[in-house]
Predict the structure.
Amino acid sequence: MRPPCLLTGHEAIPVAFYAGCSSAATKGHNANATTAGIVRTARRVPVAVLVAGGTRAPRYARDWPSAPAGAVRLYFAVPGAGAAADR
């Protein structure tokens, strides 16, 4: 992921900071976005969801391509790359 980009999910705030991306959360103390807002953003800029081992991706990201990244799985949508978010 390269800026501009959006990261959400497990440990998204520090990872986004180091990657130069924005971060978003739909629940918890740092909630600042809606699911619909994240899906809309994925149509314009790359979006990734960090999912901790043993947990499921959010419903909106389950059809996105994914790859292991250390202790998490990264689900991602890249506009124009044929990702599910483009549909």
About this structure: The mean pLDDT is 93. The first strand starts at residue 6 and ends at 9. Helices lie at 12-19, 35-42.
